[in-house]
Amino acid sequence: MADIAVIGAGYVGLTTGACLASLGHNVTIADIDEKKIQDLEAGKIPIFEPGLEELVSTAVSDNNLHFVVGARSASATAQFHFLCLPTPPKSDGTTDMQYFHAAIEEIREIIPPESIIVNKSTLPVGSASNIQNLLSRKDVEIVSNPEFLSEGNAVQDFLNPARIVVGAESDETATKVAALYSKIDTPIVLTDAASAELTKHTANAFLAMKLTFVNEIAALCELVGANITDVTKGIGLDPRIGSSYLQPGPGWGGSCFPKDSSSLVQTAKRVGFDFELLEKAIDRNQIHLERTAKKIMDELPDKNAHKDGKIAVLGLTFKAGTDDLRSSPSLAVIGYLLAEDVQVAGYDPMVFEAVEELEELDIASDSYQAALGADVLAILTEWEEFTDLDFGKIRDVMRQPVIVDARNLLRRRDMEDQGFRYIGIGQ
Ligand SMILES: NC(=O)c1ccc[n+]([C@@H]2O[C@H](COP(=O)([O-])OP(=O)(O)OC[C@H]3O[C@@H](n4cnc5c(N)ncnc54)[C@H](O)[C@@H]3O)[C@@H](O)[C@H]2O)c1
Q1: Measured distance CA(317)–CA(254) in Å, rounded
Q2: How far apart are the first and last CA of the chain?
């Protein structure tokens, strides 16, 4: 059992802390957000993540998990310091390291001798070595141990990962970090810090490119009269390709893919490599988002009076199973719609308040309220509950019965039988 400080109580920090505690370690999670820590102490989980609340509550009652404000109180006695801090993009696409610099500054003098700093956040190649310089403590090593969890399945992913990657300069330190996960049965990749950092960026960039590729094929399907569902089934059964991340959609987004892909392009630029393939995948994703908005706009009855048009959007989060709105493709598409002056009402099972960056977006209390008087119903996030709606009732409250299903969530035949004009993706 190790004494672990987890700095940052967000999606990754909270999951990491609760899971490490469930593996038997003594964990203290720190955040600068006092309200977040107060809520956690009161048993309130600030994010929606299946299974997390139970895990936190068990670890707290087992006295394995504690919450404090500020990194210093957590790190003063810990052997391991897991940094789970934000790494947002700067306007030029590079990674903003300010949260890391601030946290390192905060803890550098008080962390115990021979303790180990573990970077869980997604950081550009070279960060471990830069942070080591900033820390200027020869007795403390920085290890890269990137997190691969996916929101909506975070606890499961953390406790049953496809692999654990640990990158350190010394084998002894890497082995100490790997040992923290000894109760998890999975391949462990021990490597140097730069390779571990690049592994994480590569994984996200590769998945983003896979999604762009599928959206390109979906666009081609529409032009040649093929069906993307059958095409992806046909290629996904090939184990060399695999069936995951083959679902077409409005364009990809979320808190990780956009910033991590751009950061990798910028890393490549810094060392004189032109990563045109990835750059193009990012540009093409923007085109797919615009294309989705255009598909929706094309269904408005009066092309000259957008102000009178109304669009109902089902799904606002970046994917189903999370409450995370960061870089959501749905919000990007809505942004394009609002820029055309059309009225938009949105419903999402996990969004209850106005969306800060989209003031003109009306938040509806359910799908039927969103659909009231709408000319188009657009499905932009793949929440399962949208398949169980009473579509007869939806049709009756809409001004015209049109569905643009950017997730191919519904069955065309069922919708057409109910009297809808149905437009999917790649069909
Ligand atoms: N969200 C994901 O699905 C996911 C998956 C894998 C990796 N990652 C990476 O993990 C990192 C964290 O992502 P996240 O989604 O958990 O971010 P987040 O924004 O949800 O959480 C970060 C937390 O750090 C806190 N914080 C900032 N400065 C602090 C300081 N000095 N001391 C203590 N706390 C501080 C913030 O208040 C916030 O609660 C990012 O690098 C991200 O790319 C995220």
Answers
A1: 8
A2: 54
Count Cβ atoms within 10 A of the Cβ of residue 367 and give its class: 0-12 exposed, 13-18 middle, 19 or more buried. buried
| In the block, residue with structure tokens 């969103």 | 370
Pick from 425, 423, 370, 373: nearest CA to 400: 373
Distance 116 CA to ligand 1 centre (A): 19
Is the pTM above the cut of 0.90? yes
Do the first three CATH levels of 3-191 and 192-427 match, i.e. the same topology?
yes
* Residues of the chain scoring pLDDT < 50: none
Q: What is the pLDDT of residues 89-119, one digit of tens each?
A: 999 999 999 999 999 999 999 999 999 999 9
- Which of 32, 100, 328 to mutate for ligand 1's pocket (most ligand atoms within 8 Å of CB)? 32
Copy the structure tokens of residue 323: 């409450």
Q: In Å, how far are 312, 328, 350, 354, 425 from 347, measured between CA atoms? A: 8, 14, 9, 11, 21
**Can you name the CATH fold of 192-427?**
Rossmann fold (3.40.50)
Task: Determine the pLDDT at residue 306.
Answer: 74
Q: Which of these, 22, 4, 13, lies nearest to 115 by C-alpha position?
A: 4
Domain segments of the chain: what residues?
A: 3-191, 192-427
**Residue-by-residue DSSP string for 376-404:** EEEE-S--GGGGGS-HHHHHHHSSS-EEE
Cβ-contact 248, 230 below 8 angstroms: no
Q: Is 75 in the pocket of ligand 1 (CB under 6 A)?
A: no
Q: What are phi and psi of 264, to 5 degrees?
A: -70, -40
Residue 348 Cα, ligand 1 centroid: separation in angstroms?
24
Active site residues: 256
CATH of span 3-191: 3.40.50.720
User: Could you tell me the distance, in angstroms and rounded to a whole number, from the CA of residue 247 to the centre of ligand 1?
Assistant: 27
At 52, is the secondary structure helix, strand, or coil?
helix
